[in-house]
Amino acid sequence: MPSALPDGEPVPADGALPASALAGAADRPLGFYLHVPYCATRCGYCDFNTYTATELRGTGGVLASRDNYADTLVDEVRLARKVLGDDPREVRTVFVGGGTPTLLAAGDLVRMLGAVRDEFGLAPDAEITTEANPESVDPAYLATLRDGGFNRISFGMQSARQHVLKILDRTHTPGRPEACVAEARAAGFDHVNLDLIYGTPGESDDDWRASLDAALGAGPDHVSAYALIVEEGTQLARRIRRGEVPMTDDDVHADRYLIAEETLAAAGFDWYEVSNWATSDAGRCLHNELYWRGADWWGAGPGAHSHVGGVRWWNVKHPGAYAGALAAGKSPGAGREVLTDEDRRVERVLLELRLREGVPLALLREAGLAAARRALAEGLLEEGPYEAGSAVLTLRGRLLADAVVRDLVD
Fold it and tell me: Which stretches are transmembrane (predicted)?
């Protein structure tokens, strides 16, 4: 969740949504994102809305404390119940992210999940995920999460090479994420993801292959692999600008992606989104699919974004300001926008093209259809799905996904 917030119209003090956003809501899937904004240290590449204890000292007082954060977030879940109304609507997915959610006590995460269950109810097959830092969990912690209702966990592995982790300012030791997978399986988790990053300065092809092999050897059923993006304002960006570490170019990113696809496919993983692979449909991250398909979700926590029925809003960034708003009985919303039909069409093209099922050609305008024909001729779209009415990226198309989608939208 990037730290920068867009502009927008004010959010009403009670958080009320336009009637149009709630029309037909009971028939749409609903997910919850619960943001935990705390980290033990700040990773050099991170631009997310997160805070270390040092960064919060003197800026938020008791309101920004990790110790009472779960209570504050529960207050927003209760606000969501008031805003969304009393129509029966079970929650399909819950995703606890950060930051480092596992810096909180396991019981706090279970209590936050319990508030969603108590206020809305969970679908019988609900997907309940938390992100986790490998160094902040142990078997007892994982067992508490599993007993409390979590059934999916995502560990930040990034790399199996110590020198790569050092560049990223990651504090876990190589081998620990793989051990966490075994501990999560022993605790009864149905689905386990490992997050990897490629293209770190100083990483070689062999380093990347070693990271993939280590991840696969651990036995997850889901792997996410993201190209490192150097965000302005981060410590890593400053180090690159000073010439301390080299910048990785796009050709290297493309080579690493091809290595990932080859390695993961050989191990029985299928891509279902440009940066995500799973061993089965059951292993896919349903919560992220809510985002990619424009469903409804409520994001609780500082800086969290939400979307319901074509209305998108975002919370104030700072934990102290967030907690202060809720303590005063007000919405923590900082701004919102009401999407037009054209906005939603464009977003569908932008997001659904990244999925294995692709985007319906019927969503494209005349210029977009012409661009799709060119992309097909250039080997960027698959022929079979195109003939059936969908634009689906080929492997080469995935390498150029951002350029392809820009053409289709234009």
Answer: none
